[in-house]
Amino acid sequence: MWRATVLTIFPDMFPGPLGASLAGKAHDKGLWSLAPVDLREFAADRHRTVDDTPAGGGPGMVMKPDVIARAIDAVAEDARPRLLMSPRGTPLTQRRSRGWRRARAWSCCVAGSRGWTSG
Predict the structure, then answer these.
(1) Gyration radius (Cα) of the chain, Å
(2) Average pLDDT over residues 46-64
């Protein structure tokens, strides 16, 4: 079975569209599983803060790396790939996904959101 762990501040959004259509049927048959993990559980302060303003200023917020590191350490006890979705990263292609599936490698994915700015 292929297993994915999603580190997110919105765990209630999962499985979302992944629970429908063919992906949903495969999930129901036990071909894959999804474990959403709330990043706020790994925050160090009483307000469970997981983001902060960007270094050097600017619009938007960024995820706190110490929170993400604690979450990854807690859920990724094996050698499976860890995916941080970023516009600067290597594109996640179907070919790469198939390779991980063939290797029976699972994944740990950090789901974030890019901030939009106007103007």
Answers:
(1) 16
(2) 85
End-to-end CA distance of the chain: 46
Place of tokens 């950090």: 110
Report whether 104 contacts 97 (CB < 8 A). Answer: no
- The pLDDT tens digits of the residues spanning 59-91 come to 878 888 899 889 888 886 666 677 777 777 778
- Residue, of 56 and 42, whose pLDDT is higher: 42
Q: Count the neighbouring beta carbons within 10 Å of the beta carbon of residue 86.
A: 10
Q: Supply the pTM of this predicted model.
A: 0.66
Fold of domain 2-110? Alpha/beta knot (3.40.1280)
Rounded to an integer, what distance in angstroms lies between the CA atom of residue 112 and that of residue 63? 8
User: Domain extents for the chain?
Assistant: 2-110
HEC profile of 51-113: EECCCCCCCCCEECHHHHHHHHHHHCCCCCCEEECCCCCCCCCHHHHHHHHHCCCCEEEECCC
